[in-house]
Design goal:
Blueprint lengths: L12 H5 L3 H14 L4 E4 L5 E3 L13 H10 L3 E6 L2 E9 L5 E9 L10 H7 L3 H10 L5 H50 L7 H15 L2 E8 L17 E5 L5 H11 L8 E3 L17 E8 L2 E11 L7 H45 L6 H14 L5 H13 L9 H4 L7 H7 L2 H9 L9 H6 L20 H16 L10 H11 L6 H9 L1 H11 L7 H4 L1
Antiparallel strand pairs: 1-2, 1-5, 3-4, 4-5, 6-7, 6-10, 8-9, 9-10
Length: 550
């Protein structure tokens, strides 16, 4: 049982008043299992941590070195015996970092009739009468039973501590898995949005909005570097110079100056600053307490910088946050690289188209600019049908290239001032097929080949080269056919002047449902004023200007 009450010269009331709650809880559990209340000592220092009642201020069994030795051995031990009493110690784990030793007095038997009480009373620090009363009321233990129960108590405590440690590990793992899942979801979401139709700043905006929900930073920012060889005043270059999300502490100029001051390179990877930068005189950005900066990089090309500022819990950024920003920066960099590559390819294709249209114009000075006007008019007609930008692009390119096959037509036929013979007309009718042969192996222009091949098909099936009719004629070719006919009728030719508006309109009304798709002819009359202005504006100025239409 526990040490019995006794009188001593030193008061321990202050110690009792300061007993931690966990010590009191431990004493209650030991009392439930062993009976009485045991004194709890710190295993490392030997200091008393809690008392069941008054106890001797000094006693050999509570000596610091004795307690430490018991704790090191990590097994229950009898510290002293006197008569029927034994002082018994049980080492126990208090938590992951601290151990304790529970020490108490236990009765192994009753006093004999003539047995002296004095030595036991001295061991207890009690009077003879109090010692007799304690032994008489105490449960009697055998040494084996006491050791066995103490071992069971130890096992229970160690099992609880192990369960607590495992639970903490599970909680930590769960938190880590949750964070990892969110990070993977973010990266997966970005990869799913790697569409060339989306601009780089649209994907960057998504990344910033997702990062604020995943990474423990108060604010994020992203800035792009100017594209190589790009005119800063061009419409294409007008994108957000800096994008932010959350509580970002710097203005654009300060952010760029900070990036420059850090002297970052692609090789150095993400930069992590956790020191209290406000104490650094040369820093100059007091609002930035912690910082991660990662490059937007693809190969040897760098497109900008992604940054996170100020840990939300006032902690430090680590490798997890740095790795996340580095991964996001790599995805955005690859996307920017793809867009840049696509832009260069588009410029190359545009150059090829410009060269081809120039070659067509060079064949016949009287039709110079015809392809460009057809392209513009065709786009305006298509807009009446509310088509998407991708379809407008196909129509515009198809209009530019619809007569590309005329490169293979004899100049004498193209430039003949009078009426063509049947043989010459049959020769002219070869140009859609020739155009198809020229373009069919160019992947970037594959979608405009149907326009080139079928823009002379008639709605009633009397056209060429395939005699398609009605809805079987590609829609873009039907649009281009009306635009082509309008420019051919309204432009001057060597053998006639351009027709006036009234005559052009009359021909279109008569040919609707025969030569042309009636829905497209109706769209022509709805957009008549715009089409006239397009034709007048570009009559003397023909050039490839795809951007103005896309």
């Amino acid at each position: 049982m526990a040490l019995a009450p006794f009188q001593n010269a030193v008061s321990l009331e202050p110690l009792l008043a300061e007993t931690p709650q966990w010590v009191a809880d431990l004493q209650d559990r030991l009392r439930l299992w062993l009976g009485g209340r045991l004194t709890i000592c710190d295993a490392e220092t030997g200091n008393l941590l809690g008392l069941g009642s008054d106890a001797p201020a000094e006693h050999p069994c509570w000596a610091d070195d004795v307690i430490r030795v018991v704790a090191q051995r990590r097994k229950p031990e009898f510290l002293a015996d006197q008569g029927p009493l034994s002082i018994f110690a049980i080492p126990l784990p208090a938590d992951e970092e601290r151990g304790v030793v529970a020490v108490g007095a236990f009765a192994l038997r009753d006093f004999g009739q003539r047995e002296a009480v004095g030595p036991a009373a001295t061991l207890m620090g009690l009077s003879d009468q109090e010692t007799l009363a304690f032994v008489d009321a105490a449960r009697k233990w055998t040494t084996d039973n006491l050791l066995a129960l103490a071992g069971a108590v130890q096992s229970a405590f160690f099992a609880e501590r192990r369960a607590s440690r495992l639970q903490k590990e599970v909680d930590d793992l769960s938190h880590s898995l949750s964070s990892t899942y969110e990070e993977i979801s973010l990266l997966y979401g970005l990869t799913q949005n790697l569409r060339l139709s989306a601009s780089d700043h649209e994907l960057a905006r998504l990344a910033l909005e997702w990062l604020i929900d995943v990474a423990p930073a108060e604010g994020f920012a992203l800035c792009y570097l100017p594209r190589k060889g790009e005119d800063a005043t061009s419409d294409e270059s007008r994108r957000p110079e800096i994008m932010t999300c959350g509580d970002w502490p710097l203005e654009e100029a300060d952010f760029r100056a900070m990036i420059e001051s850090l002297d970052l390179t692609i090789v150095s990877g993400p930069c992590v600053l956790n020191q209290d930068v406000t104490d650094r005189v040369e820093w100059g950005y007091e609002a930035v307490r912690q910082l991660i900066v990662a490059p937007l990089v693809e190969g040897d090309n760098i497109f900008g910088w992604l940054a996170a500022a100020n840990h939300v819990h006032g902690g430090e950024f680590g490798t997890v946050e740095a790795s996340l920003l580095s991964s996001v920066g790599a995805i955005l960099g690859i996307h920017s690289g793809n867009i840049e590559l696509y832009r260069q390819q588009a410029e190359m294709v545009t150059g090829v188209v410009r060269a081809l249209t120039s070659a067509i114009d060079a064949k016949d000075e009287y039709t110079c600019g015809h392809s460009d006007r057809v392209a513009r008019v065709a786009v305006r007609l298509a807009q009446q049908f509310n088509v998407d930008p991708a379809q407008l692009k196909r129509i515009y390119m198809g209009g530019l290239l619809h007569d590309i096959g005329k490169i293979g037509i004899d100049d004498s036929v193209l430039r003949k001032p009078g009426k063509l013979t049947d043989e010459e007309y049959d020769h002219i009718k070869l140009h859609p097929g020739l155009g198809h042969k020229i373009l069919k192996d160019i992947d970037q222009l594959s979608e405009v080949v149907p326009v080139v091949l079928h823009h002379h098909e008639n709605w009633d099936g009397t056209g060429y080269p395939a005699r398609l009719a009605g809805e079987t004629i590609p829609w873009e070719a039907r649009i281009t056919a009306v635009a082509d006919a309008f420019d051919a009728m309204s432009s001057d030719r060597p053998y006639r002047q351009g027709m006036n508006d009234e005559k052009v309109d009359a021909i279109f009304r008569a040919g609707a449902g025969k030569q042309w798709d009636p829905a497209v002819v109706e769209a022509f009359f709805h957009a008549r004023e715009d089409i006239r202005q397009i034709a007048d504006r570009s009559r003397d100025s023909h050039f490839l200007d795809q951007q103005s239409w896309m």
